[in-house]
Amino acid sequence: MRHKVTEATQGLTAAEAKGLRTAKELEGHLAWLDTFTPAALGVLAIASGIYTYLGVSTLLEDTGAMSFFAAVAYSIAVSVGIFVFWSYMLRLLPSMRSAAGFIGLTVSTIVGSLAIVAMSSWLNAAALAGSAAVEQHLDYTVRDYQAALEQSHDIALSGQALGREVQRAREAFEALADQERSGELSGAAGEGAVFRVLTQKNEELRNLEGQIAGQQPLIEAAYEEGNAILGRMRALTVAPGPVEQRSVAFSEESVRLAGVISNLNQYSVAPLVSRAAADLPASVVLPELDGRNSAVRDAQSSTIASVLDALDQRSRTLKQAADEVLALEPPQETAYNPISSADAVIRYAGSFVPSWAGAIAIDLLPAILVFVLAIAQAAIRSGRDGLSIEETLTLADLKAAINAMKDVEATMGLADGEIQRRVAAIEPEPLIRQDAAE
Q: Which keywords belong to this entry (predicted)?
């Protein structure tokens, strides 16, 4: 509250008087604020300790008494450390008058704040957003598995598309066989050596085509099973209840899904088609020429050579198509790794900025009070610098000084009276002894 200056301050300039009044007003405010600041600091320290306890509890795997006492001891240490550290800073830093002292304590404040964040704030964030962070980890894992399943399915379908290439090759050789039967190729109608070569390759391609077609139901079944597992995993991500229990069920489903994706990768027929295409011209079993005369046998030999050239060309086409499928990037191997709430909060910190802000603010809010108090103390010193004690005395200070002087004078008066009484009590005795001697 404001006080009028005494007569000794009448010689002050307007600026000095204003600075003095400001200093007195700030001192009054600080005196009032100091009545509850320690209590408020204690409340903040206790609140931080509680959230630290919740964060530590998520890191301790054991749930016995020892883990409980360990978490309690750590949270108490954090609360005491926060209270003591900020109590030091609130008292010492605003009182620093030299630049070196102020800078030194400011650096100490920054280092101490980082230490508090390291030992408490991230655990507070784990308590505030730990479950949500673990759920986000589950959601990201589901996305990874879904991408792997989709990619494996696409590769398998690309392999199935090779069946059309095989079918085209088979139909081409089947048409050539029909032509040879009618005598349009070698000139010798019937089912001779050329026809048997064409029929041989036709059967090989037919068998390959059947194997490719047989994979289609397996691919579709695996894809449907994978989608069903993904649906259960998504449900576990948002289901009510403790996230730790849901994580266990989620892990079991992820193992099943990994097996489905592995099977789906094996259902791709691209490696089979590539090997079959390479073997197509090399596995020809040349029959004995059965022409009636040398001219017919020469025609058969020439036709078989042409068939082998056609086989070689079809082989290169099929192998190129199969290699294109094999060149597709395989799905990235995905595995679910269980994660604690504290680790999840750190890994996905960008998604939980409000929780991190609250966790850090509850620990570092006293830093704002420290610098506010330092600014107020600097303003008080600025208002008083250059003024003598007589110029800074207020009416209340003068009354207090007068009352103190009166108390001192009364005390001194009592002391003088006591001395005189003792002297008076001692002086008559020599006089009495002198009278007795006379």
A: Membrane, Transmembrane, Transmembrane helix
CA distance 344 to 127: 11
B/e letters for 44-57, b = 16+ CB within 10 Å, e = fewer, are bbeebbebbbbbbb
> What's the domain count of the chain?
3
Which pTM does this prediction carry?
0.66
Does 162 share its domain with 283?
yes
Q: Kindly write down the DSSP assignment for every residue of 181-211, as one continuous string.
A: HTTSSSS--SS-HHHHHHHHHHHHHHHHHHH
Please check whether residues 426 and 333 belong to one and the same domain: no
In a domain, 298, yes or no: yes
pLDDT tens, N- to C-terminus, the chain (438 residues): 344 444 444 455 666 556 666 667 777 777 788 888 888 888 988 988 888 888 888 777 666 778 788 888 988 999 998 999 998 888 888 888 778 888 888 898 899 889 988 888 888 888 888 788 888 888 888 998 989 899 888 888 888 887 888 788 777 767 776 766 666 555 555 556 666 766 777 777 788 888 888 888 888 999 999 999 999 989 988 888 788 888 888 888 888 998 898 888 888 888 888 887 777 765 555 555 555 556 655 665 666 666 667 777 777 887 888 888 888 888 877 788 888 787 888 888 887 888 888 888 888 888 888 888 888 877 777 656 654 455 555 556 667 667 777 777 777 766 666 666 665 665 555 544 444 444
Has residue 220 been placed in a domain?
yes
Instruction: Find the domain containing 407 and state its range.
Output: 400-437
155 part of a folded domain: yes
Provide the terminal-to-terminal Cα distance of the chain, rounded to the nearest Å.
75
Residue 406 maps to a domain: yes
